[in-house]
Design brief:
Elements (H helix, E strand, L loop, with lengths): L1 E4 L5 E5 L8 E2 L5 H10 L2 H28 L10 H19 L4 H4 L1
């Protein structure tokens, strides 16, 4: 996120793209950004933001699990049966989406 600051140095806005007054980059996990959001967003919007962050984190975990399996550090059958099913189903859906030239992040 690109941060826009006041003359006093306080965050007054967050942008997806850089602008003339927003060139500083900060993570959504940065405490200063979290404080700004808590002060300026309703709880429902904060929950939505958290769920969006969770989706990115889930994708990171999926990629990590794939990498560990490719390096034979972890074997799929070592996961509980329900976890195996979820991993396989998500992988199949992602493959189907990518075969249709869709961007997964735009859908999720």
């Amino acid at each position: 996120m690109y941060v826009e600051r006041s003359a006093e140095g306080e965050i007054i806005g967050l942008r997806k793209e850089p602008g003339p007054n927003s060139t500083e980059v900060k993570s959504l996990n940065d405490q200063e950004v979290v404080d700004f959001l808590e002060q300026n967003l309703e709880k429902d919007k904060l929950k939505l933001l958290l769920s969006q962050m969770d989706m990115g984190f889930i994708r990171l975990l999926e990629d990590l699990i794939d990498l560990l399996m490719k390096k034979n550090i972890v074997i799929l059958t070592e996961f509980p049966k329900k976890a195996q099913e979820k991993l396989i189903n998500r992988k199949l859906i992602r493959e189907k989406i990518s075969s249709q030239n869709l961007v997964v992040e735009d859908i999720l």
